[in-house]
Write a structure and sequence with these properties.
It is a single chain. Helices cover 0% and strands 38% of the residues. By secondary structure, the chain is an all-beta fold. The strands form three sheets. Strands 2-4-7-10-13-15-17-19 form an eight-stranded parallel sheet, with no helix packed on it. A seven-stranded parallel sheet has the order 5-8-11-14-16-18-20, with no helix packed on it. It is globular, with a radius of gyration of 16 Å. The termini are far apart. About 5% of the residues have low confidence.
């Protein structure tokens, strides 16, 4: 097991995409704080480990590289904040992190925001791995989008919960990439920002 409590952890090197074949081994990675980012000069980085988020974490790099969390993720803190970092380029939308596995955590929730940069690029975090991803996220706490240039994309198979609990858009955007991504009994509240159906239904 590897725990990151502060500072910065760079994952992988050019040509090395699977942490399970690298120095972090096959155990759970516990993120209690700090930054987890792609290492090297190019290429995305995939974590095949299970991940536990127990504190406020920054994901991504000041680049177009992204972190792909392929294993299951557990929210062990009540409401951790995940802050996305992308290249500081004007009029761009860049993915910082993809959560391709299932996210659990009981009644815990998560707040999503972005690093403040001078050119205001949009930082994207994706819950789901596309139309064939039928592994539901099960945490039932509030998901809050709270960054002015944060976009949460919900991208699991149609009818599969990317969000099992309520969602609040205080800033930024929630965008559906497939239909029926939010639990039927959940509430979506938009106080300032955008809920983009993107041609889908909910």
């Amino acid at each position: 097991q590897v725990s990151i409590n502060s500072d910065s952890a760079a994952i992988g090197s050019p040509g090395s995409y699977a942490v399970t074949s690298g120095p972090l081994g096959t155990g759970t990675i516990t993120l209690n704080g700090g930054i987890i980012r792609p290492g090297g000069v190019s290429g995305d980085r995939t974590l095949h480990n299970a991940v536990q988020i127990g504190g406020n974490v920054q994901a991504g790099n000041l680049s177009t590289q992204k972190m792909i969390f392929a294993g299951d993720v557990s929210l062990s803190a009540t409401n951790p904040t995940l802050t996305m970092s992308v290249a500081n380029t004007a009029n761009t939308t860049t993915t910082a992190a993809i959560f391709a596995g299932a996210i659990g955590g009981g009644s815990n929730g998560i707040t999503l925001t972005n690093v403040t940069l001078s050119h205001n690029p949009t930082a994207v975090v994706v819950f789901g791995n596309g139309a064939a991803d039928n592994r539901a996220n099960t945490y039932t706490g509030l998901t809050q989008v709270a960054g002015p240039f944060t976009q949460l994309q919900l991208n699991k198979a149609a009818g599969t919960n990317a969000l099992a609990g309520d969602v609040a858009v205080a800033w930024g955007t929630v965008k559906l990439m497939q239909s029926d991504q939010i639990a039927a009994r959940a509430t979506a509240t938009v106080s300032s920002g955008t809920f983009d159906l993107n041609g889908n239904q909910e």
